[in-house]
Each structure stands twice: as C-alpha cells, then as structure tokens.
Amino acid sequence: MSIVSHVAVLSIGQDCKVMRIIAHLDMDAFFAAIEERDTPAFRGVPLVVGADPQGGNGRGVASTANYLARAYGIYSATPISTAWRLSEAARLAGKPPVIFVSVDMHKYARVSEDVMRIVRRFLPLVEQASIDESYGDVSFTESYEAAESLCRRLKNAIHAEERLTASVGIGPNKLIAKIASGWRKPDGLTVVREEEAETFLAPLSIRVIPGIGPKTESMLNGKHIKTVTELRELTVHQLEALLGKRGVDFYEKIRGRDDSPVEEYSEPQSIGEQETFESDTLDSQRLVTLLDALVHGVIERLHHAGFQSFRTVVLTVRFADFKTTSRAHTLAAPTDNVAMLQREGLKLLLPFLDRRENPHRKLIRLLGLRVEKLS
C-alpha cells in the first residue's frame, strides 16, 4: 500500500505559503508477507504466490515473491515456469527450493481494508492506488521532520496490529515519494526534500521513471542512455521527437516535477478480466468460449463497481512466445449491453485467428478483455 502525503501550495496572506509534501506507503511483498504471517512454515524460506508451477509446465505468472525468492531472480510477473526452473537451479546448488502458494485474493483484500483503516487514522486524505499502496495528505504536519515522525508511527501501528511491514517515501510530490518508497525496502522510510529531488534521481536507472517500460528502456539504451542524468542531456524537443507527447512529460519527470493531486477516490480507468489457457491453443471454439466468459465477467464487475456503461473495448492476446498485443475499438455511444460487448470482442479476436494479426499461426497463451471510458 502506498501513502502519499500532499501539501498543496496555498497562499496565506501576502507572503506565506504552505509547503507541499507527499508521502507514499507501499506494503512489502504484500501477498507473500500475509502468507508468511499466517503460516509459520513459510517463514524464512523462499516463497512465491502465484499460479501452480506444475513441475515446470504450469501456466500463468508469479503474483508476488518474497525477498528470499527475489534473490533467485523471481519477481512479480515472472512466468511461473521460469520461477520453477530458477527454484530447481537453486535446489541443485544446495539452496532451499521455493515454496509455491496459490493466490487468495479474498484474504488479501480483507487485509488491505484493515491496513487502510489504520492509514486513515493517521492521515486525513488518503488515495488508495492499489491493493498494497496508497497516497495520503500529511501537509498539516508543516515540515518534513514532522511528516517523517508521523509516517514512522503509522508504520509501527501497521506492524503492531497486522504484523506486516511497509515502506514509506516522503517527498515534494507523488513521483518522488513513490520512487523513494522503494529505495530502502523492506521496512524502509526515505525522505527526499524538494531541493534534493533532482540529485536523488540523477544516478538512477531510467526505468524508475513511471511510463518508461522495457521497450522504451531498450530503445534509449541503444542510444547509450541508461541513467536519469544521461536522459536529462536531451532537450525537450529531442525527447518529443524520440517519444512523442510522452517525451514532454518525461522532460518534467526526470527533473522531479509532478503536479498531480492526491485524490480521496479515483474511479478505475478500466475494468477487465483475463485468463491463461492450460495449454496454448488456436482452437477457435475454445477461444470464443473463453471470450464469452470474459464478457460476462467484465459486465458483472462493471455493474458491481457502480458503472452503467463503457465506450471502449480492448482485447489482449498473449502468444506462446509471450509476445503480447492489444487491439481496441471505441463505440459511437456508451453501452452496457452484453451482446454488444460479445460482438465487439469477437470482431477484435477474429484477426488473431488468421493471417491479419497472426500470419505465422502462433498458438495463443492468454486472452484478456477490458472496457474503458466508463460512466
């Protein structure tokens, strides 16, 4: 869970301004930590929460790995078959093998709610960013020293009441606070003041900047740009030429600038579901049957979340070689019609069954469907 504390720059009288401070709280290896807490046999051993590895033939990915498993090279989103092979390599080298545990989202959601209740006792404005992180407003503390003291008390309360650890980053905005929260994991607390932000970012890998993923990183690495300092050598026009409109955004981020507010509630930008096949397939009947199940699941979640309609449909296909492709279509008018979503999903799927989107007839590993532009 992340907590960000935000102090907006507000004028008070003629000369005085309130300092802007953000705090970000991120629970440490959340799913794995809950399993370790609840099952003593899991403590002190490498642990992965995720899909069944099935002796190296399993589908799906690792959802969370504890820090002992991360030492083997297993992280969130590592293919579970790869995690199994890394565990076997460690075992053959005389190290403890990984224990694999299935995901229990209902339990993790309950614990998340309990943690968030603690967070709200300490912070007046909280924005939950995900199941294991949130932002909170600590501007009322009026200093970094007081904000640090408050967040340390919060961390201690979470540990005492839930027997879990969290890492907190405190900075002048959400960007710096989030990066700082990952700086001294697990159980860390890092403070980066406004005047320290650029220096803090300078030596870091460009991957710490939100929005720079593996493909962008690889492209920039090809131009001998690996650190934030090296990326700063490009002008805003050069960044825009390389990365389009995102380049202008990155120009601000790599200088530690971020004006995004802390919001008590953020509506989900999309609602979706996905499923990994037990065996890779191009069987149209299996794919259409799964698509139908995804459609009904998405519509159910849409209504459960309080939304009445969507306008954009997105289909995601992951092939057996892990190449992942998404295709989207935006409707002329909002709808929540099941038949409409089925029809649009099928129109997006069919090209992957022939040469239009799948000229080499690659088998499909995963199918996902989501809706956007919710209302």
What does this entry look like structurally?
It is a single chain. The protein is an alpha+beta fold. The chain has three domains: 11-29 and 106-195, Reverse transcriptase/Diguanylate cyclase domain (Alpha-Beta Plaits); 202-253, Orthogonal Bundle (DNA polymerase, domain 1); 270-372, Dna Ligase, domain 1 (2-Layer Sandwich), CATH 3.30.1490.100. It is built from 13 helices and 14 strands. The strands form four sheets. The protein has a five-stranded mixed beta sheet. The model is unreliable at 1-16 (pLDDT under 50).
- The CATH top-level class label of the largest domain: Alpha Beta
Helix content: 25-40%
- Rg, Å, rounded: 23 Å
- Strand tally is 14
**Main sheet specs:** 5 strands, mixed
